Amino acid sequence: DRGALEVVAENPMRVLSCSYWENYDPWFVTRRRLMDNFCLFVLEGSLKLCLDHAEYLLHPGDCFLLGTEVFHAFGLPEGENQVKHFILHTLPGRFSLENPVDRLKSPCHRFPIEAGEKENLKRMIGETQSGESVGLRYWELFLNRLLFDLALRGEIASATLGERNPRFIAALRFLGPISETRSGWGISLRRRESERCDVVSCSAAVLD
C-alpha cells in the first residue's frame, strides 16, 4: 500500500531510549499509559500484554508496538518463570501530526532478527548507556526497517492525502471552526520556499 509506505517514509521513528531486561516471576506492570510509543521485543520466555479490548500472549520473536497514550499492562503469564526482552521508547523524528505506530492494525507482530543481530542489539544498548548516540541510531534503523516491512505486509493503515500532508491539517486548524451557512468553503494552500523558511499561505472563499 503506497499510502502506508508514505506514512512510514515521511515520519521516521526517533528512539528516545532503549534497554535490555531479564524479569522473573512474579513480575507484572500494572495498567498505565505513556506519552510516547512503547515497543517491546521478546527474546526468551513468554509475556502477556493486556489492553482494554484484548489480551495477547507473546513468544520469542514476537513484539508489541503501542502508540501514545494507549492504556496497557504487561508481565509474566501464569506458569512462566522469566522473560528476556528489549524495550524502546520512541516518537516520530520530526514535528508531525502523523505517528505510524498509531496506524498499526494490530499491536502484536513478528520481528526478524538475523543471525548474530541479537548480540549486536545488546551491544548497541551498552553503547547508549555509556553515553554514545550510535546505539540509538542503530536501533532507529532496526525499528524503521520493521515498520517498512509491516507496511509492505499491509499491517499499517494508509492515510488520505490530507492526512499525509501536515501543512493541510495545520491550515485547517489555523482557520478554526467555520460557521458559514453558504454551501461550503474552498481552501487553497501555497508553499513558498526560500533559503531558510517554508511558508504555507491559506485562503478561504465561499463557494456558491
Written description of the protein model:
With 208 residues, this protein is of the alpha+beta class. It is 26% helix and 37% strand. The protein is built from five helices and eleven strands. A five-stranded antiparallel beta sheet has the order 1-8-3-6-9, covered by helices on one side. The chain has a four-stranded antiparallel beta sheet with strand order 2-7-4-5, with no helix packed on it. A two-stranded antiparallel sheet has the order 10-11. Helix 1 runs antiparallel to helix 3. The longest helix is centred in the last third of the chain and has 19 residues. It is globular, with a radius of gyration of 21 Å. The protein starts with a helix and ends with a strand. 22% of the residues are buried.
Characterize the overall form.
globular
Q: What is the makeup of the main sheet?
A: 5 strands, antiparallel
Ranges where pLDDT stays below 50 over 5 or more residues in a row are 178-208
What spatial order of strands do you see in the largest sheet?
1-8-3-6-9
| Proportion of residues in β-strands | 35-45%
User: Alpha-carbon distance between the termini?
Assistant: 37 Å
Question: Gist?
Answer:
The chain is of the alpha+beta class and 208 residues long. The protein is 26% helix and 37% strand. β4 and β5 (55-58) form a beta hairpin.
List the helices and strands and how they pair.
Blueprint: H1 2-10, E1 13-24, E2 28-32, E3 37-45, E4 47-51, E5 55-58, E6 62-66, E7 72-75, E8 82-92, E9 108-110, H2 117-129, H3 134-152, H4 161-164, H5 166-175, E10 185-193, E11 198-206
Antiparallel strand pairs: 1-8, 2-7, 3-6, 3-8, 4-5, 4-7, 6-9, 10-11
Helix pairs in contact: 1-3, 2-3
